[in-house]
User: Fold FAD synthase from Paenibacillus tianmuensis.
Amino acid sequence: METIHLSHPCEIETTTKCSCAMALGFFDGIHIAHQSLINRAARIARAEKLALTVMTFYPHPRQIVGHMLEPMKYLTPLRIKEQIFSRLGVDRLYVVRFDENIAKLSSSDFVQEYLISLRAKHVVAGFDFKYGNRGEGSIETLRNEGAGYFNVHEEEKLSHQYKKISSTHIRHLVSDGLVDLVPEYLGKHYEIKGTKISTGVFIISEPFLLPKSGIYYTKIDSIDQSFYGICRVYKAVRIVITNHHDFAEENDEVTFHWLKRLESMPSV
Assistant:
């Protein structure tokens, strides 16, 4: 998969452009509904013999539009997103830098400069997708402004137990420590990457959203090992494994799969 970073004004060589079916959205977590949307774009790309592309944004628009002082935490930081998109068979990933310039761009200018100019022939977006200055653009304006250039495919709302499957809801579950409920919306257990800095202690260097402070039952994977263990989460982006202290070498990266929050440390 090729990753192309864009900033406003959008400048990309004509020779690198290719006709495509494009999945459009922020895609934090790449949850069940996101996967459905991307798979739909993939089916169109195969049927029409087009490249499969994804357009996402970084940082999150809320960081800029909401004037957030603290950097936002993500279910899937950009590096992890890239890995997942690649596994999903995406040919090209466009990462648009979201800043004040693009936040002020009109919906019609966004369509012209970022969709039509990149030769999108089919655009797949969620029913609630917003774009353009103050979110003036919607799925309906996307159809109108792209008429004659690309077809728009609207992905309808997916729900579980009457709750919309969304990144916002999953973030709330993680923040509240309800990690055992996450797979029903994400499609798998929530995962984050950590780096070992000392015996049993791991630091989270990327902007992952950490679960609520407390004690958790987890599955932990390194390059050549895997085990189930008990971890304690601290607010200062630290995770401490309370068993298997000799797991992994210093500076090794491991993956934590969050299975369940425990009320207290289990007795040995």
Observations:
- DSSP finds eight helices and 14 strands in the chain.
